[in-house]
TrEMBL record:
It comes from the Bacteria. It holds the Pfam family HTH_17. Residues 5-53 form the Helix-turn-helix domain. Transmembrane segments: none annotated. It comes from Pseudonocardia benzenivorans. This is Helix-turn-helix domain-containing protein. InterPro entries: DNA-bd_dom_put_sf, HTH_17, SinI_DNA-bd.
């Protein structure tokens, strides 16, 4: 089964940025995330949405 949610570290690796940058993107609302208990997780499709948004802005 394919994973649907990623940790900030996993999302950072997938995007090629730092974990701090992922948290900045989540805080600014540019990267969608969900809260599960005390943890934040990033839906895999939210990464594609962010990349699409960045590509359109270029």
């Amino acid at each position: 089964m394919e994973r649907l949610l990623l940790t900030a570290q996993e999302a950072a690796q997938a995007l090629g940025v730092s974990r701090t940058k992922v948290y900045d993107l989540m805080r600014s609302g540019r990267l969608r995330s969900v809260k599960i208990g005390g943890s934040r997780r990033i839906p895999v499709d939210a990464l594609a949405e962010l990349v699409d948004e960045l590509a359109e802005a270029s």
